[in-house]
Amino acid sequence: MNDSVPKDQNKNGKDASPVRSQENLPTQGESANKDESLYEQKDMLAAQYQQAGYQDMLDRKESQVYTYTAPWTIYSLGFSCRPDQKYRIGIGSFLEDIENKIEIIQLDDNLENFVVRNSFNHKYPPTKLMFIPDLEGAYADIMATSGETLKIWQINEKDVELRSDLVNNKQIEFSAPLTSFDWYPSNMALIGTSSIDTTCTIWNIEKGVVYTQLIAHDKEVYDISFSPEENIFASVGADGSARQFDLRNLEHSTVLHETEDGKPLLRLAWNKIDPNYLAVFGMDHTYVTILDIRQPMKVLTKLTNHKDCVNAIAWAPQSSSHICTVGDDCQALIWDIGETRPELTEPLLEYRAEGEITSLSWSLLQYEWLGISFGKTLQILKV
What is the pLDDT of residues 39-92, one digit of tens each? Predict the structure, then answer.
């Protein structure tokens, strides 16, 4: 995309707010100059972004925002990774009913509006939605969702079919709900899931069988993430700990972090470029904790600009030092952890949405695009 592509507009017909550097944000009573360069007089910031591969961000005056309004509250979202399906996103509903919905939407050929490519039912709200992280287009076009089971969906030209419905425990009538999952980047036949029954399960989705299963925590497990290094994954849970595991020796684990206040850890994200770094946050926490796995039980730095609880985190796919955080304070913040200090309070970039941001996805394929959701609204931001 270039500067000639029109920006989306909000309900009032006004241009959506561009992503701005923290220093460029207008103070109370000021109005933002739409024509002002986002990186004007930001030589230091520009140098950082050039090093991280953001050159295209420096060549335009404003970030661009596209908006889609779903017919229901959005609970989960994820970018497609296929090179022949750019600007494609999956979103899942939060309905107070057993039957929920998933839509696969995509910018139209003119890159002006989102259109619905597919819509289908999903039992219970999907706790996570993720397309296969296949940047080469070498695998089938599939997507996974978690809820009461792990579901694998085959995306066809005209419809979407359920390929596998993988139950965590077939010995009981009702399986424990799955809280999250992650695709194993070293072998895309494997997916790891986390569950409220204290277990993590590694599935072979091609064979539809359990590869291995372990009791990961003393209480509910809320998230799982694979390292870019082979065999390594980590999980967080209601016991307030982040634990690292090795598929080659699941009898032992390393406790990487425990919350000071004993509150549950809700989410973690593994840096996909530098496997030494993990990010975690806890229930009702207004900050994100960055960990260095080489120094267990020691905090590398805390990101502390949010004014309300954090809801989601995502590392930049092409940079080892940039991470995005979103929260109930309506803010999406991009941070640079390159110069580590015990506490970082000033993000590089800030975007303020019109509601509490609950979901976040950073495109692995088009890494200049972020997706966020608040209420029924999805926005993709060109940062």
Answer: 333 344 444 444 444 444 444 333 489 999 999 999 999 999 999 999 999 999
In order, the DSSP letters of 74-129 are EEEEEE---TTSTTEEEEEE--SSSEEEEEEEEE-TTSSSEEEEEEEEEES--SEE
Q: Are 289 and 298 in contact (CB under 8 A)?
A: no
pLDDT of residue 3: 36
Give the model's pLDDT for residue 109: 85
Residues facing residue 131 across a β-bridge = 143
- Check: CB of residue 224 under 8 Å from CB of residue 234: yes
| CA 89/CA 171 separation, integer angstroms | 35
Rounded to whole angstroms, how far apart are CA atoms 359 and 126?
A: 12
Regions of the chain short of the pLDDT cut 50:
1-18, 20-63
Please report where in the chains the tokens 């979901």 appear, as a residue: 359
Residue holding tokens 């507009």?
9
- Whether residue 209 contacts residue 165, with contact meaning beta carbons closer than 8 Å, is answered with no
SS3 category, 146: strand
What is the C-alpha to C-alpha distance for residues 239 and 236, in angstroms, rounded to an integer? 8
- Looking from the CA of 38 toward its CB, the CA atoms found within 13 Å total 23
- As a whole number of Å, the CA-based R_g of the chain is 20
CB 313 within 8 A of CB 302: no
Predicted model pTM? 0.83
Per the CB < 8 A criterion, the answer to whether 291 and 301 are in contact is no
User: In the block, which residue shows the tokens 């980047």?
Assistant: 185
Half-sphere exposure of 195 (CA within 13 A, CB side): 20
Closest CA to 302 of 345, 259, 365, 354: 345
As a whole number of angstroms, the distance between CA 293 and CA 111 comes to 41
**Residue 347 carries which DSSP code?**
-
* The pLDDT of residue 111: 86
